[in-house]
Fold:
Amino acid sequence: MKKHIALLFTLASFSLFAQKNIYESSKFDALSKNHKTLAIIPFLTNLDLEEDISKNELKTLEEKEGKAVQNALETYFSRRKNRKKFSVEFQNVANTNAILAQQKITYQNIDIYTIKDLCKILKVDGIISGNIDLNVLLSKGVQTDFSFIDYILGDASYGRIGIKISDGDTGKLLWKYEKEINKKSGKNTMALIDGMMKRATRKFPYDKERKRNKRKN
Structure:
């Protein structure tokens, strides 16, 4: 019995690890060498809820979840910025959203603008954006008790998130991190972002220590 449990744990751990994916462009150093400021924009959200709600309410909830990720990323970067961990600055999210609003760019139409367009409007060198698919309202908090039965039945999965960094001059994708969201990811949006970014620290391209290690090698 113990061997079966250990095997299940190993398979589950391997599967969860395999569902994480980090990509970095081979041209990252060349395209980002003059980057000084990045803007974080609201994440595009797709909600697939069991509740029967109107389209307007669904859109409102999707915007709320997308902005929750935006705010959580700002909080994460701000904490590490105080320890001088990054080679770039991050535009204040309130300023980002205010500038977008001034240009009549809303959550509903932001996806029709190119990365180049947004960088010019926001006066930044790159954009942090992404998508999040959810079957729960993560910003409200979720159940984190986890069992192998949940995993087997598929009840452990809450969705998936992808974080992207794109270059403002070329619009090219520089870095991307994808991860499944499940009961082990955290009790809310803040915990999710904090946990996944901590695990990606050594792979985060603007991390000063990582850049020093790359130069040494």
User: Anything to note?
Assistant: Confidence is low (pLDDT under 50) at residues 1-19, 144-154. The beta strands are 21-24, 37-40, 44-47, 89-90, 126-134, 157-167, 173-182. Residues 55-81 form the longest helix (27 residues). DSSP finds eight helices and seven strands in the chain.
